[in-house]
Amino acid sequence: MDARLGMRNLTSEGGNSGFTLTELLVGLLVGLLVLAGMHRIFVAGLKTQNTTSLQTEVNRKAQVAIDDMISKLRGSSEVIDNAPERIWFLDQDGNNCRFWVNAGTLYRYLGESAGSYSGGVPLATNVSQIQLEYLDPDGQPAASADAVCTVAVLLEVERAAHVARLRSAVRLRNK
After folding, report:
1. What is the value of pTM for the model shown?
2. pLDDT (tens digit, 9 = 90+) per residue, 81-95?
3. What are the start-end ranges of the E strands in the chain?
4. I need a labelling partner for 10 at 20 to 30 A (CA). Which of 27, 87, 121, 174 fits?
5. Residue 18, CB half-sphere, CA atoms under 13 Å: how many?
6. Are 98 and 79 in contact (CB under 8 A)?
7. What's the pLDDT tens digit per position in 19-40?
């Protein structure tokens, strides 16, 4: 007996080429499951990127604003108004400098004329809190604006449930 007779012929003559309908449906189902999984991963990545982007924006706004306040305060020579939610002082050039929050926006005014807390340049939006603490040379709360030697700043910026809360303190250089 010839060993070749027992082998099956897999050429097109036997009609066994291609895929069956069941094989195609199973392949299609597996492909759809893979695509659905990839879609979920893609959507999760987009949400994470959006969350990270918002938090980065909030952090950046708060950092820029507090850095500006600290740099101006560092060279100040005299604190004029030492309210807990705003500050008015003379900078190193003798200009009036004021920082305050109005309707969620932190403003800075720098100029020669005195005046009220109005006008100014917006430094940061979405400010939910600013808290200023004025300390004397011994680190105790200052009794008056003349006694202020150190200013501690708490700035909180919030947007869409993303919060940046920064604290900093500066010792007035010219005191």
Report:
1. 0.72
2. 889 999 999 888 888
3. 78-81, 86-90, 96-102, 105-111, 121-124, 127-135, 150-159, 162-171
4. 27
5. 8
6. no
7. 899 999 999 999 999 999 999 9
Q: Assign residue 147 a region (left: φ > 0; alpha: ψ between -120 and 50; beta: otherwise).
A: alpha
CB atoms closer than 10 angstroms to residue 172: 17
Amino acid at 79: V
Q: Apex CA 85: angle with CA 83 and CA 87, to 5°? A: 55
Q: How far is CA 168 from the centre of its chain?
A: 17
Local structure of residue 9 (DSSP, 8 states): P
CA gap 21, 27 in Å, rounded: 10
Residue extents of the structural domains in the chain: 36-171
Q: Which amino acid is at 175?
A: K
Distance CA 83, CA 148 (A): 12
How many whole angstroms separate alpha carbon 122 and alpha carbon 65? 9
Dihedral of the alpha carbons of 97, 100, 102, 108, in degrees to the nearest 10: 30
